[in-house]
Hints:
alpha+beta; Trna Endonuclease, Chain: A, domain 1
Amino acid sequence: MNNRKTAIEGENAACEYLKRKGYEIIERNYSCPVGEIDVIAKDKGVVVFVEVKSRNGTDFGVPEESVDLRKRKKIILTARYWAGAHGRECAKGFRFDVISVLRGEVRHIVNAFDASGKAW
């Protein structure tokens, strides 16, 4: 299976998982001049910026390990860009989650990192 197909299937699995948990999907594959966010959702009014990482094996480690500090900072900048245009949406706050999809199994890391990029 190619990487793009794995990524698409992982994002689909992540969105289905979030919907089952009661999240509202606001946007998928948001892109702006500073970066891209896989999924933007709402959880009880809180905006959740979700990075989805998918793999079919662990040859290169588990998927969430690839969300390094550089990637987290890019997600934060992109989220700030989105929030600038949708400020009202963030009235109840926001957070950064990571969803790891390994061989179809979904692992959701809530509050995976904060607005400074520090991982929990």
